[in-house]
Each structure stands twice: as C-alpha cells, then as structure tokens.
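Record pair follows.
FIRST:
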Amino acid sequence: MIGARDGAQAMAKRPTMSHPTNLEIDVLRSFVAGVQLNSFARAAKLIGRSQSAVSLHLRKLEQQTGQVLFRKAGRGLHLTDAGETLLRYAQKLINLNDEALSAVAGDDVSGRVRVGLPPDLAETWLPDLLGRFARSHPTVAVEARVERNAVLLEALDAGALDVALFWCLGEDGTQRPGRLLAEFPIVWIVPAGFAPDDQARLPLVLMGAPCLFAAKAIAALEESGRPWRSVFTSTSLSGIWAAISAELGVTVRTPLSVPAGLHILASGGLPELGRASLRLRAADAPSRSVQRFIDILEATVAAAPSVAGSRIAPNVGRAFA
C-alpha cells in the first residue's frame, strides 16, 4: 500500500486545477518521435536535438503528467497505459500546432496540386494528408492520381503531375533522383493459418507487370530454387487483398497497408526479400502551393504510426520542427 507520505508526494507531482500545466510542443515532438522510431537516439537526430535534451524532455513529461510513461520490457522500453493515452493526444496537439502555423503562413496560397502516389499510400496516409492540407489551404485544389511507379514517373516527366511518390527496391533506390522519405521491409503476406508446403509450388498472387514487388518475389524464389506458380493477377491492390483473403495464395508487399485478417509470414522457409525505399520527386520549380503540400506530406510521414522494421529518413518532417 502507498503510505501517507508517498501519497502526498505523488499528489504534489500532479498538476493542480489552479495552476494548469501547459504541455510544450517541442517536448511532445521528442516523445512522439522517440516512440515512432523506437529509438530516442534516432529521434534526437530527426528533430535536431541532442540525446540528453530528448531525455530531459521525457523526464519533464513524466513530471508534468505525474505518470510513468514507459516500462522496461527486456532491452527495450514500452509505453504504459498512460503513455499510450498521452501519445494519442500528443499527435493531435502536434498536428494542430503545425496546421495552425501552415494556415497562417499559407493564407495567400492558391492554385492546384497534382500528386501521384502508389496504392499502398492511398489506403494509409492519403486521408490524413488530404485532411491536413485542406484545413491549412482550403483554396488549393488537389488532384490525386493512384498508379504504379512507371505510370507516375512518366506523368511527372510529361508535366502532368507536380509531385510523385514511388517505390524503389534494393540498390535501385540509391540510383533514382528524388528525396528518400522512408524505408520498409518487403514481406510475405499470407492468409490466416497459411503454412507453406515445401513439396508444392508456391501459389503467388501478384500485381500484373510491370511490378517491382512481383519481379522481386519471382527472382528471389528462382534464386533459392523454390518452385512457384501464378494463381491470380490484378491491376489493383484491393484485388490482391481480396485474393489473399480468399486463400488463393500469397503475395509480397511492405507491412504498410496489410488489411486486418491477413498476416505477415515471420518464418516458413521463404526467401528474404530485402527492403523497399519510398522516394519523392517534384517537378522543376514547384509553386508555393506544391511546396506547402510537400511540407505537410513530409510532416504526415514523420507522424504516421510506426511500422515494424521501418525507418523514416533523417530530416523528413523538419519543416514544422
């Protein structure tokens, strides 16, 4: 039981109604970045502060809230229930702060933004991105085009897009122009209860050519000597998910947009597939509205929920830091 003295000390740490505590945005930013990157050393680099400064921010948050925000679990740290609650509110407060600054700075921004992005992002980041941009720049029209890499890059080169996000796999990512936003592991995605049969040809559900992920899967299987067969192809990611849900076979993608009910195969004798990098390219001399869209896009990437094995590139999202 907590003694009277301990209870009094605990109460003394909590903010009182007569003196409300104001949470600082830069302190919350350190907290959120550390959780999302699963490393406060990497968070320090991302937000441009020393690791000791980030540690001070975390101690300050615990003092201000009167709660323990992290618990030790093995070699790592995990959020307590209080930490999970604070994380949800911290993300909202940071977003509101950034949107307020963007709205004030962008009062005279108008025109349109034509953005192209792969289907993975349309299912995950696009709703939040569009909402944040519309609240900050309500007079700017946005045209979104969801396509595969080759189509998006051709449209950008032809002047039909202002900005494009696209995937690069392996060493190809270092050869492409544009800015690195994030990296993700490439994983095997399977229906519930799937167990690969070493004696049977692996049933593949893949996007039709040209598809970097399909080519990567086939090359890895053939290099490892694993037999395979194509059982379903689709031009849309929703078609791929439907086929996996129907237990027709397996596919490869990043963990970014795996629907509920499907699983990432942690082991099972299938070959390793490496990593995919997400890059951004903009047309030459982007307008102010396009640049503001890119700023908010990068802030959205930096604030997105973390994905196991992912890495946000340094300085992404720093426009609002």
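SECOND:
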Amino acid sequence: MNKFWSLFLTRFTWLTLLIASALSANAQPANPQVLLETPMGNIQVELYLDKAPLSAGDFLAYVEQGLFDNQLGFHRVVRPDNDHGTPVISVIQAGLKDGAQRRAPIAHETTEQTGLKHLDGTLSIARAAPGTGGGSDFFICVGDQPALDFGAKRNPDGQGFAAFGRVVSGMEVVRKINALQGVSTGQDDYVDGQILAEPVSITKAYLLRQ
C-alpha cells in the first residue's frame, strides 16, 4: 500500500469515528440544567428527563413558560430540630405564590418506577395524595433522605415522593436556606416552626444552553 492510500485510510477512519461519536451524542442528549437565582445565591440543577419524564418535564415547562420568575419561593424549612413527622427529615420546600398561574397536576412517578433515590441535593415533587403534585411545588433534600423513597414510612400511603433532579452547584445556598428560622402560623401543628416569615424568592429561573 502506497503512502497516499495509507494516509487516506487513516483520515477516513478518524472521520468515521468522529461522525459516529457525534451521532451517539445526538442520540443520547444530556439532561437539561436550570439555574435558579435567589437573593441568597444561585442554585444550578440537573433534571432527569430520561428517568422521570413527567416530573422533570413539568418542572421544565414552568421554567420555559416563565411561570417561576418572582412567583416562586422557598417558604418552608424542615430539620431535625423542627420536624414533626416520622422518620425525621431535612429539606427545603418551594412553592408558587397564592394566585400564581399553575399547570394541571401530574401523575405520581414513584422512585420504584424511576430507579431514583432521595439523596443529598435531590429535587422531588411535594404532594398530598398521589397525583396531586406538580413542578410548581417541590423540595430539595439536605442530606440523604431514604424515608422519602417508595415503600418508606414518611408518607403513610407508602408511595413516597417523585424525585426528578439534583443540585449540581449551590448546595451551600440550599444549606443556608435550610438553617433559617421558621415561625409558627398557628394553623397547622405539622408545619409549626417551619414556615419562613419571608420566603426566599426565586427571582429568575432559566434553562442553561449546553
């Protein structure tokens, strides 16, 4: 084989590998990441669209429609020193302001279905009965919280909560929010001492282009 053909085949092989790599990357797109801006610092999250498409997709829809901007805030902090549930957990919870636009509730995606776990920094859907929650009301785990997984005891129905993402940057902000002092509302003993007098507002939420 002469040098010309040898060089041609080498370059052709490299070109083929590059094309195959690009096609593979396009076939398996990275999970989207969203930035949540707050007065206490930014929180960057990854959404598991591949494993929890309903929950992650609903959260992303709120972001892309601009429904979170200045309408959403972290309003509840739960820690071992103020928790009234069993087993004890540690999370911060966010929700839309009263009167804010909401999408319809979504079906409950259990961690048994998705294979996800409530680990440190996990985002999950807050809910009452299964199928009553959505991306507008979610919480972030502070430390591993296996009591929130499917089959665990935190929720009497045993269905657990729908994990759909994780914090990739800004857990120090999450922990600062979790350390804030809650107050008593005098309305519900279950959340006594957990409600923030001034919610930590999410001033802007947007998709990071990858």
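COMMENT: DSSP finds four helices and nine strands in the chain.
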